[in-house]
């Protein structure tokens, strides 16, 4: 079982930055694919970014955040980060940290979510 705990959400003005953190426990961190999802009111949950391999050198970004968001992972701290720059009101959502095994078909471990609100 994997436990995930997010932090770092909050209220920020458009153009500002936030960094989300997610600490994982209960399973070898290096064996996990780590992702950040978000869900805005009335919309489906979407994958924003993922760190695929152990070092985090293989990543995925949704088109909507490319060039603005950066995912990274620190194996010494069992933590994955999402640095969010140039935030826009449409980035407002609950952000969730998620994890899956390398061979798994879907994410099966989720954090509780952290609210990010971007004011115009």
Structure write-up:
The strands form two sheets. Strands 2, 4, 5, 6, 9, 10 and 11 form a seven-stranded mixed sheet that branches. The protein has a four-stranded antiparallel sheet with strand order 1-3-8-7, with no helix packed on it. Strand 4 and strand 5 form a beta hairpin. The model has no long low-confidence stretch (mean pLDDT 95). With 120 residues, the protein is mainly β.
What would a concise description of this structure say?
The chain is mainly beta and 120 residues long.
What are the segments in which pLDDT stays under 50 over at least 5 consecutive residues?
A: none
| Percentage of residues assigned to helices | under 10%
The fraction of residues in strands falls at over 45%
Q: Which structural class is indicated by helix and strand composition? A: mainly beta
Count of individual helical segments: 0
Rg over CA atoms, rounded to whole Å, is 13 Å
Tell me about the largest β-sheet: 7 strands, mixed
Q: What's the mean pLDDT score?
A: 95
* DSSP, total strands: 11
The end-to-end distance, rounded to whole angstroms, is 40 Å
